[in-house]
Specification:
The complex is a heterodimer.
Chain A (H helix, E strand, L loop, with lengths): L1 H36 L2 H23 L8 H16 L5 H23 L4 H21 L9 E2 L5 E2 L3 E2 L3 H23 L2 H11 L1 H6 L4 H27 L1 E2 L6 H14 L6 H16 L5 H16 L3 H10 L4
Antiparallel strand pairs in A: 1-4, 2-3
Helix pairs in contact in A: 1-6, 2-6, 2-9, 2-10, 2-11, 3-4, 3-5, 3-9, 4-5, 4-9, 6-9, 7-9, 10-11, 10-13
Chain B lengths: L2 E2 L2 E2 H32 L6 H19 L3 H22 L9 H23 L15 E3 L4 E3 H23 L1 H11 L1 H6 L4 H23 L9 H16 L4 H21 L7 H12 L10
Helix pairs in contact in B: 1-5, 1-8, 1-9, 1-10, 2-3, 2-4, 2-8, 2-9, 3-8, 5-6, 9-10, 9-11
Classes of the chains: A mainly alpha, B mainly alpha.
């Protein structure tokens, strides 16, 4: 019996690996072809948001922590990356690292404060902290206030590759995003990731099993913030701009929307969601404020009728994990 | 004219007054949030939008129908409450057994829809709404000038807040409400229609937001984003106070308004972040909030 169960588990596991591998190959193939079919800047924007949403999903999907203030890390990392590239003349790879490191520090501090409360309060606290840092961004000199930091130089990667070439820039963004995606996949399938899922399912139980859940939550929060910061730094380089839009609460809402549409707690959902929402916003841009209304309507529909999201729904239909 | 800590009394008391006004709105809004959370277990993100809607409906009543402030003070809460009841029946009732997260996201989506609609028709700029004639002018108290309208806002919101407290803590209906918050199944077994009570509670909480909106209209510009600006601060207020107690919500709201006003006098750069800073301190020292219990 035991062997039978083992083989069954092994087959299930192999099927899971297979479905994920197939989806991963399809995704990479699409992303390599994409800049030739679509505007490279559009795809880069979508990639940055895909990474942002994956980072957010790490928290909401695998630890069950709802952060409603992720724009804080995305936007502030963008400011740090843009500032270090422009004012200090750092090379792009270093500027991106500075941005991600700043997000890591912010994530550690904000996480420390926010994990003192659970559930709905956690969401409100993260939102309030993000709003506070938005107001700070409005006032301090470094961010350039309403103007933001404009004309950020993309520079030369490692001093060699000129990122002003769209395709080189694209290759850089794609490689970073894929590496981060792989890292997230590793995290959620590591023993550490299993503990995170245990916390999501039943925190009291995880505590009684001897896990210091607050420490795990804090590390997960900081990781998520760092990766969100990585995405924000890349976006600042791509658009050569860091602005208030990226630290505003609407950005925190947007990443929730992308993850929800794609599928909470799925591996590929946030990527699909990010591409869809970025595309939708492109088409809705001429309609002005109707964009806000439609975004709100998508939220409502997703919650009422489509909680699994696109990828989650697909995975459930095909009986695989995606 | 005299000075306190080197600050002219006019400026000090003026800001204190403004702080009290802000505090009355914080109190009214966090009160509504707390009442709704108690019954529905939902953080009503739409609350800010409903406050904005209150101000806008007052503005529209005056603009298109010539209906002034005093009738609006009655009509608007009823309209906003009725819309709230429709929202509860159409949307919130469907998700009552789901995770908290979905309530938050759903009401966030509704807030975006409402704000987007108003922005579409009125743009992002503010619309003026005059102070009603009977409350124009003010009186000189010697140490400061007190505009009549502001005095009215503070007095009236105090009355509404304590009226709500009385209704919930001291009346028979309120005791049903508190019982249903504790144990809805048991209360249902006594033959009380709990779902209807939930719907009416939501309507009432939202009507409070609408009322706050009407009162705010002559003080601030009526603009589509006035709701989202204030709701995040109110969330911080709720985190500081904890949502367990009605009186706690009222006291925290007024106190934080005053603190904000005082900060504006002594340290103006920090005035709009001070509430968030207090939230951080409270979380570090007393994570449950000043009046809350840890769940």
């Amino acid at each position: 019996m035991a062997t039978l169960a083992n083989t069954k588990a092994a087959t299930a596991r192999r099927e899971t690996d297979l479905s994920i591998a197939v989806a991963a190959v399809a995704m990479v193939a699409f992303l390599i072809a994409a800049p030739f079919l679509l505007y490279p800047v559009f795809v880069m924007k979508a990639l940055c948001f895909a990474l942002f949403a994956c980072a957010f999903n790490l928290l909401i999907g695998y630890v069950g922590l709802v952060s409603f203030g992720h724009a804080l890390y995305f936007g502030w990392a963008g400011y740090f990356a843009a500032y270090s590239a422009k004012a200090w003349g750092l090379q792009p790879e270093l500027a991106v690292l500075v941005g991600a490191a700043a997000a890591a520090v912010l994530g550690l501090v904000a996480g420390r404060i926010a994990i003192r409360r659970q559930g709905i309060y956690f969401a409100m606290i993260t939102l309030a902290l993000a709003q506070m840092m938005y107001l700070v961004a409005l006032r301090v000199k470094m961010t350039g206030g309403e103007d933001g930091i404009q004309g950020v130089p993309r520079g030369r990667l490692f001093g060699v590759f000129d990122l002003n070439n769209e395709m080189t820039m694209y290759a850089f963004v794609l490689l970073v995003v894929l590496a981060a995606f792989l890292l997230i996949y590793r995290i959620i399938n590591s023993p550490f990731g299993e503990v995170l899922k245990a916390i999501r399912e039943n925190e009291q139980r995880a505590i009684s099993l001897g896990y210091k859940t607050d420490d795990y939550k804090l590390v997960a929060f900081a990781l998520s913030a760092t990766l969100a910061g990585l995405a924000g730094s890349l976006k600042a380089l791509v658009f050569q701009l860091a602005s208030l839009t990226d630290v505003h609460w609407t950005m925190s809402g947007e990443v929730v929307l992308m993850t929800l549409v794609g599928g909470l707690g799925t591996v590929f959902g946030p990527v699909v969601g990010a591409f869809l929402i970025v595309a939708m916003e492109n088409y809705l841009a001429p309609f002005g404020q109707w964009g806000l209304v439609i975004q709100g309507a998508v939220f409502v529909i997703c919650v009422l009728a489509f909680r699994r999201g696109i990828v989650g729904e697909l995975a459930a239909r095909l009986h695989v994990r995606l | 004219m005299f000075e306190i800590f080197g600050i002219p009394s006019q400026a000090l008391f003026g800001q204190l007054l403004l702080g009290l006004i802000n505090g009355s709105f914080y109190a009214l809004l966090s009160l509504g949030l707390a009442v709704i959370f108690g019954m529905l277990n939902i953080i009503n993100f739409t609350h800010g939008a409903q406050y904005m809607m209150g101000a806008f409906i007052a503005f529209m009543l005056l603009q298109y129908l010539g209906i002034g402030y005093w009738p609006a003070l009655v009509i608007v809460p009823i309209v906003v409450g009725a819309i709230g009841i429709v929202i509860e029946r159409l949307f919130l009732q469907r998700i009552q057994n789901l995770d908290h997260l979905y309530g938050l996201i759903l009401t966030f989506g509704l807030a975006l829809i409402i704000e987007g609609l108003f922005r579409n028709y009125y743009g992002a700029s503010g619309q003026p709404y005059g102070v009603p004639e009977s409350l124009q002018g003010g009186r000189n108290l010697g140490f400061m000038f007190l505009p009549n309208y502001r005095a009215w806002v503070i007095a009236f919101s105090l009355i509404v807040c304590f009226g709500t407290w009385f209704a919930i803590e001291r009346t028979r209906l309120g005791s049903y409400l508190r019982a249903a918050t504790e144990n809805p199944t048991l209360v249902r077994a006594f033959g009380i229609n709990v779902p209807r009570m939930v719907t009416l509670t939501y309507g009432f909480g939202v009507a409070l937001a609408g009322l706050a909106g009407v009162m705010a209209a002559p003080i601030y510009n009526v603009s589509p984003q006035m709701g989202s600006d204030i709701i995040i601060v109110v969330f911080a207020v709720v985190v500081i106070g904890g949502m367990g107690s009605i009186m706690g919500a009222i006291l925290t709201g007024f106190t934080l308004g005053i603190v904000e006003g005082l900060t504006k006098v002594f340290f103006p750069e920090a005035s709009n972040t001070v509430i968030f800073a207090i939230m951080i301190i409270v979380l570090l020292v007393r994570p449950a909030g000043l009046f809350g219990r840890l769940a």
